[in-house]
Structures are given as structure tokens and as C-alpha cells.
UniProtKB/TrEMBL annotation:
Protein name stated in the entry: Uncharacterized protein
Biased composition (Basic and acidic residues): 11-43
Source organism, top-level taxon: Bacteria
Feature: compositional bias, Low complexity: 49-60
Region called Disordered, residue ranges: 1-60
Species this protein is from: Methyloceanibacter marginalis
Amino acid sequence: MAFKPNYNFQKAERSRAKAQKKQEKLKRLQDEAAKRKAERGDDPETEAAGEAAEASTDEA
């Protein structure tokens, strides 16, 4: 053997790489969702305000 294996370090490196890959995927998905919303012209603030206005008119 060329070197003494360090299993804890290797496991930590695998976990770090997995977490980084997961974070990159999440960011990519969020960017794609934001792009789709921008193409549709959706604005979350206006949607929430519109829903609140509809709810208040339904009650009256």
C-alpha cells in the first residue's frame, strides 16, 4: 500500500462532494423556475395581492 487509508477523510470528501452537487442542482432548478415565471409574466407579489382581493370580495 502506498499510504495508510484515511476512511473518515474519504467519507467526508464524498459527503462534501454530494452536498455541493445537491446545492448546484437546487440552484439550477430555482434559476429555471425563475426563468419560466419571468417568461409567463408571473409576479408572486401581485398573485398574493390578487388572491387576497378575491378572498375579501367573496366574503362580502
